[in-house]
Structures are given as structure tokens and as C-alpha cells.
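Sequence and structure are no longer studied apart. As an example, we show below a sequence and the C-alpha cells encoding its fold:
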Amino acid sequence: MYRDIPEEMRALIEPIVNDYGLELVDADLKRGRAPWTLRVIVDTPEGDGRVPVEECARVSREIGSHLDAADLIPAHYTLEVSSPGLDRVLAREKDFAAACGREVKIETRAPLDGRRRFRGRLIGFDHGVARLRVDGEEVEIALLDVARANAVSEFTREDFARRERR
């Protein structure tokens, strides 16, 4: 989640992303056996996910050189910069607000009524609380309780039907 990005790392990454006219959605550092992986997700200010691969590559090169100069990651690491993708990451309040009406998956930090994983239609997001319709019931989940959230891509047969040539 955006709020979980360490302040020192966000202070280094976010201005670079902003200089390219983009917004930082999330940055997640996976530790463990080397190489560690730093995943940075960026988006356009419109939130449409249309960040060209070439732009991600430019942002990646600049973030990489700044991270190396600052020596913020104490291990060999791999840097991945991408747009939110089909199963869009929901990490900020504006991401949740934009996803209203869509199907989402949310995993909470601790169990709520005995469960941590929820999948349903996001019917509203107000004052830091997501309201979902899950299995016919309305569930409220505070953004502070969310560990991970994604929009779910929905496709129909028509999305894959062959279009007739004219």
C-alpha cells in the first residue's frame, strides 16, 4: 500500500516519478534471498494506466541511479517499474474511489469477522472506508485495515469474439 512505502524511499522515488508527469501508486520491496525486488507502480494523473513501456524504462533508469547513489537498499536488487495493469493495484484513496462499481479483491491485515480475503463489488468509498457487496452482504473495510487490494478485470465473450472484416 502507498502509505506503507518507507518515507526515505518515497522521498527519493516520488519526485522522480512526478518529474515525468506521472504519479506514484505503490512501491514494494520484497526482501529475502538476493536479489531483492523493488516493484514501483506508476500511473498517469488521469489514472488510466496508459504509461508507455518506454516511459517506464526511463523512470526505472533514473530511480535506479538515484537509489544506487543513496545506497538505500543494502543488498543486490532488481528494480521493476510498471503501470497498474489489468488487475489494477488499489493503493491510494483515489484508486479506491475510481474503482467504485468494479469487482475488487481485498486482503486485510487482520481477520474481520473471521476472514482476511474478500472479493466483491465495490459499491462505495467514503471517509477511508470501502463498502463491498460480498456474497449478497454489505461489508465495510477501513483503508487502514487493507494489506493488499486489486481491481478484478471482467471480460465477456464479446471481448474475445473475432470481428468481421469489412
